[in-house]
Amino acid sequence: MNGLPKNIHVVPIGHEIDRAVRPFDHTSADKVYVLAVTDRKKYAKEMIDQQEHFTRRVTEGLEERRIATQVIAADLFDVLTTMQHISYIIRQERDDGNNVHVNISACGRLTSIATAFAAMAVSRDFEDEEKIPVRVYYVHADRYSETKEERLQHGLSICTGEKITKFENFQIVMPDPVSTDLLAYLMEKRDGIETDELFDFLRERKVEEFKEDFRSPEREFEKRRAQSKYLMMANNRYLNKLQRQGYIAVKKQRLKKIISITPAGRHIASISGRIQPSRDRFH
Question: 221-234 in b/e burial notation, b at 16+ Cβ within 10 A?
Answer without folding.
Answer: eeeeebbeebbebb
